[in-house]
Write a structure and sequence with these properties.
Length: 296
């Protein structure tokens, strides 16, 4: 196995163009497991660890530009205010050691339906910027996951940045597992309220072949919140609306039975965490409104 060690992004792109089957390695927390278990024996490993750009982030007016290799620990420590959903999801990944190495670029590269960053990225509305020697393009997160552990990257492309809209309202992430730490999700759910556009967005993990949004649930809730004037009056979301939202979220799942849980359990659990995260985020929204009104 040859180990390619580009010192710059341009060298990395050139190496990937020359060896399209080369496997990029960032934190290595997925790649090394596959190699150790002999699930993969690539001819070339493309080490991205010397490329400083991939470890940087920039907070802009409306969005955050997150380098592909920024570790989860940095997201938790530095981007909690801008990306609360992703920061919460990052806290649930594995252990401190893995969170110090692994990042969102690797999570997207693996594209597991159980990747914890994915529901948060779907709910926030992210774009993945990929590049090759042919140029760069931005892939909306909704179009990124193309199958079980498959993504929209071409063979010569690398992930450079993930662009994520800064939170304009409360966000939540909830993960169901068999224990609290070091656990792959049985299912996971991300919810983001977007008061600026009076919309909600969702993300479901580990309950379909790919991470998915519950679009029918979003449309239902958007209409119900609008009709009841809830964004303006800040009243509690009626239990019947929350229940219908939860049911539609369950309906968006297309799970399998596996060692971690049955399909039926996953559908049920997604409904439960959908309702819970709606209650949490809506309560935060109401709280923020009260503070704003009190100050006025
Ligand atoms: C003990 C353990 C526990 C874990 N627990 C969790 C968990 O709770 N939740 C969770 O979501 N994950 C978990 N994981 C999986 C893993 O930590 C995450 O998927 C992590 O985000 C991977 O990031 P990385 O930088 O280590 O990726 P790597 O292992 O370096 O790479 C992963 C994949 O992405 C590709 N890749 C990496 N960077 C790029 C790039 N810039 N462009 C294109 N492709 C790229 C690689 O080629 C590879 O296919 C766990 C892993 C271990 C070993």
């Amino acid at each position: 196995m040859d180990f390619l060690r580009p010192a710059s992004w341009q060298e990395a792109l050139a190496a990937k163009a020359e060896h399209p089957a080369a496997v990029p390695i960032a934190g290595g927390t997925d790649v090394m497991v596959e190699i150790n278990f002999d699930h993969r024996r690539p001819e070339h490993l493309l080490d991205l660890n010397r490329i400083a750009d991939l470890y940087e982030w920039e907070v802009g007016e409306e969005s955050v530009r997150l380098g592909a290799s920024v570790p989860y620990t940095q997201i938790m420590e530095n981007l909690r205010a801008e990306l609360p959903g992703l920061a919460l999801a990052s806290r649930t990944v594995a252990s401190p050691q893995i969170r110090n190495r692994g990042g969102v670029g690797g999570n997207l590269g693996t594209a597991s339906p159980a990747g914890d960053a994915h529901p948060a990225l779907l709910a926030a509305g992210a774009e993945v910027e990929v590049e090759s020697v042919r140029g760069s393009r931005r892939i909306p997160i909704d179009a990124f996951f193309t199958g079980v552990k498959r993504n929209a990257l071409a063979a010569d492309e690398l992930i450079k940045w993930v662009h994520i809209a800064k939170a304009d309202g409360p966000q939540q992430f909830s993960k169901v597992g068999t224990r609290n730490a070091m656990v792959i999700a049985v299912c996971a759910f991300g919810l983001a309220l977007h008061p600026a556009t009076r919309t909600v967005r969702t993300g479901i993990g580990s309950a379909a072949p790919t991470p998915v949004r519950a679009k029918a649930a979003e449309e239902f809730l958007n209409a119900a919140l609008e009709e009841g004037g809830f964004w303006d009056n800040g009243r509690i979301v009626p239990p019947s609306v929350a229940a219908q939202f939860a049911q539609l979220c369950s309906g968006a799942c297309n799970p399998i039975d596996d060692v971690r849980g049955t399909a039926g359990y996953r559908r049920h659990a997604v409904g439960v965490v959908a309702r819970r995260t709606l209650a949490w985020t809506w309560e935060s929204y109401r709280g923020a409104r009260r503070v704003t009104e009190g100050a006025a």
